[in-house]
Amino acid sequence: APGGTSTFSQPVNVPELTQMFREFADVLTSEHLAEMLGDKRPSVKYGARKLVITPQVDDYMDYKKELAARLEKSRRWKPSRDEPNNPDPVIRIIGDGRLAAIDMRFIDPSLSSDPASKLNVLIDGVIKSYKKGADYTFNNKAGKEEEIKGTTQMVFSDIGFGAGVATHRGFNARAWFEKRLRDAGIPPNQVVFMSDLKKSDAKQKAFKDMNSGRVRILVGSSKNMGTGVNAQQRLRALHHLDTPWYPADL
To answer: Three-class SS of residue 240?
Structure first.
């Protein structure tokens, strides 16, 4: 209609579109890779991801009640002339809850470190895996043992390690992470954060260093450390600090 708009409501002819795409695209699914690689395909220890459940401390339980009250108030909110925008949107409440579940210092920086927080338990796992794999050896394509020893690991987190969160919350999770690793004797040059790598050549160097063992810990998000990161030659462990928004990211 004149003056109106047209919007995309739902996809049509998806099977036909898929067929057209498959005519020129080479698509490999997990099942295809399993058939191609056979026994060479790495398996997950214990057959599946290991869920690490941390205790809910009193401070966190109290904060959950506060979040529940905010959520109820946010859902009851209606826009008005004086208040056209929700002052406490659900997305903000969810973000607060996710950070609180990782470490309560994101909510109250004055709190002392809780050894059983998700952040500290994850760091414990990283340190344990680093030391356990320190003397592990690898062979190159020619079958000769490589000079550098040690397994590698990746730490995924879509929230918590960013500079913006540290500034806004008053708690720097990255600084705490790095401090604990240093205290455990892990050299800082063996730890790389994907957020620090702005250019493609810097990223490729980091992947090469991971595959050679010069870097042994890579930290990033689902977005910057997902598809296209070929740094798994020595990979021993994957850690997920939080659950990402989309199940596909796992």
So the answer is: strand
